[in-house]
Write a structure and sequence with these properties.
Number of domains: 2
Structural class: alpha+beta
Order of helices and strands: HEEHEEEEEEEEEH
Oligomer: single chain
Radius of gyration: 32 Å
CATH architecture of the largest domain: Beta Barrel
Strand content: 25-35%
CATH class of the largest domain: Mainly Beta
Helix content: 25-40%
Distance between the termini: 86 Å
Mean pLDDT: 78
CATH topology of the largest domain: conserved putative lor/sdh protein from methanococcus maripaludis s2 fold
Largest sheet: 7 strands, antiparallel
Shape: elongated
Low-confidence stretches: 1-35
């Protein structure tokens, strides 16, 4: 008989332990339900993704690698060449120019930052622009993705609010 009693005691202890564990889990789950939505559980909160861009006055805009790839960002180095009657001109591709109501600009790349820089155009042959002021030989400028970069800058400066939202 002792052999039969031992399994029953063992079974009862297992059932009791299971009931105790179920009660404990139920209490934990119910206590989580009583939390205010103003104080979400850190376990349940999803991590916030890193921002696609970051703006800093004087430095310009910094993009995540994913954002730069998404807009197809490409850069080129500023060089010099003869352009029409202008000898030894500082030249950039026309695709690098951003024309706005406030003038002509390019985005100069510097260590992962893109600074919108005003330029003065001396001449053009339709493909290349001779830059009179604003750039130096050896500067790196954005030649593809200029408008998308400008829109990202506007949104970053406005605190993530687009111009269509009345700001």
């Amino acid at each position: 008989m002792k052999t039969h009693a031992s399994p029953r005691v063992s079974f009862r202890k297992t059932v009791a332990a299971g009931v105790c564990l179920a009660s404990l889990l139920g209490a934990l789950l119910l206590s989580a339900c009583h939390r205010s939505s103003a104080h979400p559980s850190p376990v349940l909160a999803a991590p916030e993704p890193p921002p696609a861009s970051h703006y800093k006055a004087g430095r310009g805009l910094q993009l995540s690698a994913a954002a730069a790839a998404f807009i197809g960002l490409q850069t080129a180095e500023v060089g010099t060449r003869d352009l029409g009657s202008i000898r030894g001109a500082t030249v950039i591709p026309d695709s690098a120019r951003l024309r706005t109501a406030k003038g002509d600009f390019v985005f100069v790349a510097n260590g992962g930052w893109f600074l919108r820089t005003p330029i003065t155009i001396a001449g053009s042959d339709g493909t290349w622009l001779a830059v009179k002021d604003g750039l130096y030989d050896g500067d790196t400028v954005v030649v593809q993705g200029v408008r998308a970069l400008w829109l990202a800058e506007i949104q970053a400066v406005n605190g993530g609010v687009s111009c269509t939202e009345g700001h």
